[in-house]
Amino acid sequence: MALRGRLAAVSGAWLVFEDEAGFSMTPPQSKTWSPRGRTPVVRVRGRSRRRVSIAALTCYKPGHRSRLIYRPRRDDGRRDGRKSFSWRDYRDLLLTAHQQLGGPVVLIWDNLNVHKAAGLREWAAARDWLTIYYLPPYAPGLNPVEGIWSLLRRGWLSNVAFHTPEHLIQRIRRGLRHIQYSSHLIDGCLAETGLTTRPA
């Protein structure tokens, strides 16, 4: 990881981590306060299996404010509908990131099979502004985006009874927008991995 950080610093690139997660209508549970003997009950509509998938990028560069870029994908409930991101979705997300960051990108992500799809590899190989590295297998502790999911689940999504998929999406967007404007939270997720944005 130190080598990758030095590579990004030397080339003036943004060090970008990617991960994706799925969120369902059933809210994550968290502890809360209540009067003694009155256990709080949150009623949810358990029939819906609709999910929202989010792909997110945390972006770091010494001397710049850390950034969070994300894209949601809603499961439309059809059996033939794709529930996860395709390689074209990742391509479009990376193009958006490149435009917003305005510089080269060193991307670090996991070994998900769609990340290694032939179409995505061919597209990436033709982009001189993009360098890709893969995390070791089973190493979520090295990816700061995992911290973003934790913040979201423990904060804006915990103990909420979602009425509709739209309600779920609204809460996800609200939480991610708050994190976007709080670069110290994004920096904290990087610090949890043991990495830093300070140049070596």
From TrEMBL:
Pfam family of the protein (one): DDE_3
**Residues covered by the Tc1-like transposase DDE domain:** 15-168
Q: Which GO terms of the molecular function aspect are on file?
A: nucleic acid binding
Which domain of life does the protein's organism represent? Answer: Bacteria
The protein here is known as Transposase
- Native organism: Streptomyces sulfonofaciens
Lineage of source species? Bacteria, Bacillati, Actinomycetota, Actinomycetes, Kitasatosporales
